[in-house]
Every structure is written in structure tokens, then in C-alpha cells.
């Protein structure tokens, strides 16, 4: 049986007349990196704020670590680390000193500060003033701060927003290491499919407040079957022949496009055309990219 670290049932949040989050049934399995993907305004931040107890759901339930958040708020949130907005720091204090401020509140030792600085690879900059940190370093300090209390679950809202490619790479590596090296499950939101594709093992796609897809990332790839594209001499004749044979075929730019076709049928299609004396120039398979699938799921209105 799967152990869900987050399980929501009918989670809904409305703002006046607008439904920001609509009957969401999130399932985040333990030990995974769950990519929470959706275009701007889809409802990711609103969902995350509800998961962290920062705003109340209009209706629906949230269970974290198999306990009701409404009834066990403090004990649950103690074991959840988060990075929701770009954190603010004391610029004149060092990274270590900034973490020490939080550490005092959380009753966490200096040793733990050193550990989390090591995890986010900030040990060499630990004693430098934060005002001299790059945006990427500040974001890593934010993750260090989220890790201080040794959480079992990390919730990160668009942690790579605004970072340069090197900064994005560093954050991504950090996230990838979380379940394996530190036993921490991660929910990370993004509007970038490429981001999620590179780090998530599970994915939930949200658009206009609704969850459109939720499964293993491999299942997303299998969502859509490959099409077969065939270039022939006399495409009109070839189209008529294949339609007569019962194939689901259309013509696009003089290429024949066959849908819902199984791999063993590829050879049959070729044989039919050759026997009808139609020269076949090229047969190729086109598997839709994750981007194609994503756009199909969210419709043309969703930008990546
Ligand atoms: N405090 C609020 N008052 C009114 N409407 C809000 C409020 N917060 C969010 N919304 C609306 O709810 C919808 C979902 O917003 P949300 O910020 O959750 O989306 P998001 O997926 O996180 O997008 P983004 O990546 O742009 O932050 C949006 O249409 C937004 O305008």
C-alpha cells in the first residue's frame, strides 16, 4: 500500500466569485519528488498555502503524514520545511548568522546549522555577509533554513524562479538528492515542464484550479501513443487505400499520418502500399513530446 505524505480530498478555495482551487485530490507518495506543474495563475501557490496552513480551505480536507492538518496543525508543520516566497534576510549578517536567528526560534543547535549549510553547499560562504550572495545562493540559504528542523517533507514554491542556468542547476541537484540522501519527500511547483521533467518522479498537472493529471512521470510519457508518418508517391491514392483497409489515416502536408496504430501493423501498412504499386519513400514514427502532451492537457490557453 502506498504511503501518502500528502493526501487532499475535494480541496477547494474560492476568492469572492473566483474558484482558485477546485476539488483537488492530491496524492503525494512518500519518498518521491512530486512536481506540481501548471501555468501562471493555475492555483499552485494557493494550494501550497493551504498545505502549509497559511490560508484556510473553503472546503475539503488535507491530510499530511496521514493525519488531519486541521486537527494536528502544530505537530504536522514541525515536520514540514517550506520555501514559499523569496525569503528576506539580514543583509549585513552572514549566512550562518541568519540561520542562527531561525535556529534559536526552533531550538536547533549550531551543529545543525553547519550541517544544513553543507547540504546546500554554502559552507565556503557561511561567514560572508548575505548582501554579497547571488540570488541562487540566497535561494539555497532559504532551503537550508527550511531544512533546519530536520523535516520529513519539503514544500517548495517555484524555487528556481528568476535564477540563472547555473543557479537552476544547483537547486535542481539539491532537490534530487533530498529523498535518496536525506529521506525527505519533496513537493515542488513550477510552471516549466522542462524543470519538472528533470527532477520529478511524480507529477500533478493543475490548470484553472483543477487537477488534470496525476501519476508517475513515466505514465505521462505513455499518455499518448506514437503516430506513424508515411511519405509516398501519389499520397491521395495511398490515403484511399489505407482508409479502405480501415486505418485511421489523414493527410498533412502530403504526408500520411496514421493514429492509433500498433507497432506490428507498421509492416502491414508498408506491404499494402507496395502491393498497390505505390512507392514508399519514408516511414517514421512520431512520439509526441511531453510538451505536446502537456499542451493538449491544459488546452491552448496554458503557456509553458
Ligand atoms: N488573495 C487573492 N485574492 C484574490 N484572488 C487570488 C488571491 N490569490 C490568488 N488569487 C487568484 O487565484 C488564482 C490562482 O492563483 P495562484 O497564485 O494560486 O496561482 P499559481 O499557479 O501559483 O500562479 P503563479 O505561478 O502565477 O503564482 C489566480 O487567478 C489568482 O488571481
Automatic annotation (TrEMBL):
Keyword field contains Nucleotide-binding: yes
CDD domains reported in the protein's UniProt record: ABC_BcrA_bacitracin_resist
Keyword Nucleotide-binding: yes
Residue intervals of the ABC transporter domain: 6-233
Alphabetized Gene3D superfamilies for the sequence: P-loop containing nucleotide triphosphate hydrolases (3.40.50.300)
Keywords of this entry: ATP-binding, Nucleotide-binding, Transport
InterPro entries noted in UniProt: AAA+_ATPase, ABC_transporter-like_ATP-bd, ABC_transporter-like_CS, P-loop_NTPase
A Pfam family recorded for this sequence: ABC_tran
GO molecular function: ATP binding
Family: Belongs to the ABC transporter superfamily.
Full protein name: ABC transporter ATP-binding protein
Species: Alicyclobacillus fastidiosus
Taxonomic lineage: Bacteria, Bacillati, Bacillota, Bacilli, Bacillales
